[in-house]
Amino acid sequence: MENGVREKIVAHLQNNGCNLVEMFTSDTHFTTMGVRNSNGYYQLGIVTESERLENWCLSIAKKAEENIVSGKFEILENKAQVRVMGSGIFEHLSVALDSSLKMTKGFMVGCVGIFLLSIFLWF
Q1: Are 37 and 31 in contact (CB under 8 A)?
Q2: Percent of the chain with pLDDT over 70
Q3: Is 79 exposed, middle or buried (0-12, 13-18, 19+ CB in 10 A)?
Q4: Which residue in 9, 50, 5 sits closest to 30, CA to CA?
Q5: Within 10 A of 42 (CB to CB), how many other CB atoms are there?
Q6: Helices 50-66 and 5-15, packing angle to 10 deg
Q7: What single-letter DSSP state applies at residue 17?
Q8: pLDDT in tens, 42-53
Q9: How many independent structural domains does the chain possess?
Q10: Is 59 domain-assigned?
Q11: For residue 99, what is the DSSP state?
């Protein structure tokens, strides 16, 4: 959306009786040039004038207000018993991981040493 277009639309809606207004698009980036972005389209407000967008959004809001009907909803609540690992288990796992990394480092140093020795003895 072009910078400033959102604010103009929100102000226009609020000035025409819409009390609770929030406006957003999934296209929130801005480029400094008036060219297409990498997605192949112009962001909202560059090609279309903001006045036209303001009136379009107002007509949509009025149509939505005319079509308001009562609705129902329900809230379901569920409680779950969750078992959490204590800090002692994490410390044991950390120690085990540290020792396995030390063994891996030692093994790799030995392998590299044998490899270098075999190259040295080959030539």
Answers
A1: yes
A2: 86
A3: exposed
A4: 5
A5: 16
A6: 40
A7: T
A8: 777 778 888 898
A9: 1
A10: yes
A11: H
Q: How far apart are CA 85 and CA 63, in angstroms?
A: 54
> Is 12 a member of any domain?
yes
Q: Is residue 118 part of a domain?
A: no
- In this predicted structure, the answer to whether residue 104 has a pLDDT above a threshold of 80 is yes
DSSP 20: S
Is 16 part of any domain? yes
- Residue 8 DSSP label: H
DSSP string, 28-85: ----SSSS--TTSSPPTTSSS-HHHHHHHHHHHHHHHHHT------------------
Closest CA to 47 of 37, 57, 58, 59: 37
Range of the domain at 16: 5-66
Which pTM was predicted? Answer: 0.47
